[in-house]
């Protein structure tokens, strides 16, 4: 039986209009996600991860534009939908989004209960009592006392605010949740608790998820598929096992070597140089100025993302297929 993807992006490209010119934040990104899968998107800051996430829900800022491509979620052509249709048919009901720095996304002037009510009413008509009943159940599930509904965000700890945001994203039982850097700015113990909570919720709610992080060690704990982004492009895509145990792209290899391994005496290293300027990116492969395997062809031709072994894809001239 052929499985139909619940989410599919094809040739998605997004530009920002800046004072210096067009910034090519996402370039020709394609991937699909089947129901129940968890896809981790990893890459350095500025690699296009957040832009990709917001483009999937048509939540880009005013100075951004989808210049090409298509996004389909549960059979809906997202990019052709107007705001009313998106809010009533797609956002929060089919797919919800926990934004980067989501601890600061809660309005400090309103109690948590009012923010649950306002969020739900933006997408569906539902009595306040029913919303608060669902909110209490969700807060219990994520480990927050229901009495915190009457609190203001500034009365909660960072971990509690992150748990509230996760509960808020689940209030209308979406099939897909996109979490953007959900462990950033949390201490190590709280990070581990949030990751464990997410794993439990994913299993209990049968969620499909996209998990975005600059930390490849975080992605290894939550995703069964991994996409590696560099300079707005997917440079490697495959199962977690294949990407983590047999990384193909030199950038992926560099990310993995930059994570300290307490079980080994091998010192960790770092990727030299800086990500490219996406207003005027280098010719050819954008990673070639930092790549230890760069060849002459890398300076001239940007490699396509192609299959190496089954569903393990890589965009690199140095990889022999």
From TrEMBL:
Domain ABC transporter: 7-256
Molecular function GO terms recorded: ATP binding; ATP hydrolysis activity
KW Transport (keyword) present: yes
Pfam families listed in its UniProt record: ABC_tran, oligo_HPY
PANTHER family attached to this UniProt entry: MALTOSE ABC TRANSPORTER, ATP-BINDING PROTEIN, OLIGOPEPTIDE/DIPEPTIDE ABC TRANSPORTER, ATPASE SUBUNIT
InterPro entries: AAA+_ATPase (IPR003593), ABC_transporter-like_ATP-bd (IPR003439), ABC_transporter-like_CS (IPR017871), Oligopep_ABC_C (IPR013563), P-loop_NTPase (IPR027417)
Gene Ontology process terms (BP): peptide transport
Alphabetical UniProt keywords: ATP-binding, Nucleotide-binding, Transport
SUPFAM superfamilies for the chain: P-loop containing nucleoside triphosphate hydrolases (SSF52540)
Keyword ATP-binding part of the UniProt annotation: yes
Gene3D superfamilies cross-referenced by the UniProt entry: P-loop containing nucleotide triphosphate hydrolases
Identification of the protein by name: Dipeptide/oligopeptide/nickel ABC transporter ATP-binding protein
The species this protein was found in: Candidatus Marsarchaeota G1 archaeon BE_D
């Amino acid at each position: 039986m052929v499985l139909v993807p619940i989410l599919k992006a094809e040739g998605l490209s997004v530009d920002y209009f800046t004072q210096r010119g067009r910034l090519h934040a996402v370039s020709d990104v394609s991937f699909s996600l089947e129901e129940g899968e968890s896809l981790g998107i990893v890459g350095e800051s500025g690699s296009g991860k957040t832009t990709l996430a917001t483009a999937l829900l048509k939540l880009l800022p005013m100075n951004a534009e989808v210049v090409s491509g298509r996004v389909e979620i549960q059979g809906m052509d997202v990019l052709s939908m107007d705001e009313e249709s998106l809010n009533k048919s797609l956002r929060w009901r089919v797919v919800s989004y926990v934004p980067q720095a989501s601890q600061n996304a809660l309005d400090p002037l309103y109690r948590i209960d009012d923010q649950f009510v306002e969020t739900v009413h933006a997408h569906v008509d539902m009595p306040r009592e029913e919303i608060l009943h669902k909110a209490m159940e969700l807060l219990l599930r994520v480990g927050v006392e229901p009495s915190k509904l009457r609190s203001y965000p500034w009365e909660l700890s960072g971990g509690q605010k992150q748990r509230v945001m996760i509960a808020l994203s689940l209030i209308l039982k979406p099939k897909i949740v996109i979490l953007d850097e959900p462990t950033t700015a949390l201490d190590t113990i709280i990070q581990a608790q949030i990751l464990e909570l997410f794993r439990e919720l994913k299993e209990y709610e049968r969620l499909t998820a996209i998990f975005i992080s600059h930390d490849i060690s975080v992605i290894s704990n939550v995703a069964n598929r991994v996409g590696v982004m560099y300079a707005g492009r997917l440079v490697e895509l495959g199962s977690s096992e294949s990407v983590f145990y047999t990384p193909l792209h030199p950038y992926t290899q560099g990310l993995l070597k930059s994570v300290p391994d307490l079980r080994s005496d091998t010192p960790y290293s770092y990727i030299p140089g800086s990500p490219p300027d996406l207003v005027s990116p280098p010719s050819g492969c954008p990673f070639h100025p930092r790549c230890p395997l760069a060849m002459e062809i890398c300076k001239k031709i940007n490699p396509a993302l192609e299959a190496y072994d089954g569903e393990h894809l890589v965009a690199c001239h140095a990889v022999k297929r």
